Amino acid sequence: MVILGANYLVENAVYFANFFKVPQAIIGIFIAIGTTMPEMSVAVAAARKGYGNIIIGNAIGSCVTNTLLILGVAALIFPLTVSKLTMWYTMPFLILMVSLFLLFLKSNWEIRKVEGIVFLTLYLIFLSLLLFGVIA
């Protein structure tokens, strides 16, 4: 069922990307939001119980898994082409956010509420620029 659902999702994502003339990389980012919801629920549950290390481990583990395992397996099946949008916008944003994360973590070894607001604000700006076509 997971394989059928994944095929259905990919086919329809490509269809809608083409129908609305939206780069497939943007559709991929919005699919990622949906696939991140289970991790978000784990993070919220861990935060309520005061388990910050679970949240950090989950976030970093997810990034490493998505980057290395998923890209690696996908590249074994079919060569991956990196779009200009990804190369010149998404990747620099990712590098900025990782750098900011390390900077925030260095101060007191904590991610505080203010820093969380900074992350959320920057992410919303990132999504808004993608959605409204300022970057593309």
Structural class: mainly alpha
Terminal Cα span: 34 Å
Number of helices: 5
What percent of residues adopt helix (DSSP H or I)? over 70%
Note the overall shape: globular
Question: Topology, please?
Answer:
Blueprint: H1 2-19, H2 24-48, H3 52-77, H4 84-106, H5 113-131
Main attributes?
136 residues, 82% helix
Notes on the protein architecture:
With 136 residues, this protein is mainly alpha-helical. The chain folds into two domains: 1-81; 82-136. It contains five helices and no strands. The protein has helices at residues 2-19, 24-48, 52-77, 84-106, 113-131. The longest helix is centred in the middle third of the chain and has 26 residues, at 52-77. The termini are far apart. The model has no long low-confidence stretch (mean pLDDT 89).
What is this entry, summarized?
With 136 residues, the protein is mainly α. Helices cover 82% and strands 0% of the residues.
